[in-house]
UniProtKB/TrEMBL annotation:
Residue ranges constituting the Nmd3 N-terminal domain according to the UniProt record: 3-177
Identification of the protein by name: NMD protein affecting ribosome stability and mRNA decay
Protein origin, superkingdom: Archaea
Pfam family, one: NMD3
InterPro entries linked to this entry: Nmd3_N
């Protein structure tokens, strides 16, 4: 089983998911593949990394079930999100300036919105009467301003590369709160 060493999510198929019971079952069962058997995760001992797996098998017309303890090995990895965060990747910058309390309240709002949607912040710098905040996913930030139209931003774009033949831009938002 592959686990992200930063956020502790586990790899299920191609994506990383929070390591709840459902995800653990899908990851363990997915790694075992036993012909003619259905597998279920009965329990998982996180301290010893032992999974109790129930096998429900049809072998030559004979049906049988049994349970077996399986030791799960965790390979440490870094998921794409944590990799990008660590390497300082960003797609959008918000340059927020203005009156201290309003800036602080805006900051906690956008941080909450961003992290609830699985986004991350790569960098934050104090700058004059505000901050420059670097966000990993510009879609989330675009959505936020779409939903909160009372924040009137000035936008500009910065070309940062070409992906599949298309130019890719970072979005820079400037916001002043007086
Ligand atoms: Zn991660």
């Amino acid at each position: 089983m592959t686990e992200c060493k930063e956020c502790k999510r586990i790899k299920v198929g191609r994506d990383y998911e929070d390591a709840d019971e459902g995800a653990l079952e899908r990851a363990i069962v997915g790694a075992l593949h036993i012909k003619d058997c259905k597998l279920y995760l009965v329990s998982f001992d996180r301290g010893r990394n032992i999974a109790l797996v129930k096998f429900d098998c049809d072998l030559g017309g004979q049906h049988g079930t049994f349970e077996k303890e399986i030791r799960v090995r965790f390979a440490k990895s870094l998921c794409m999100k944590c990799y990008r965060q660590k390497s300082g990747y960003y797609e959008a910058i918000i340059q927020i300036r203005g009156q201290k309390e309003r800036v602080e309240s805006f900051m906690s709002k956008i941080y909450r919105y961003n992290s609830r949607r699985g986004g991350f912040v790569s960098k934050m710098e104090e700058n004059g009467d505000g901050y420059d905040v670097y966000f990993g996913d510009k879609k989330i930030i675009g959505e936020f301003f779409e939903k909160n139209k009372r924040y009137r931003t000035k936008q500009s774009y910065e070309l940062y590369g070409i992906k599949k033949g298309k130019k890719v831009y970072r979005t820079i938002y400037f916001l002043r709160l007086e």
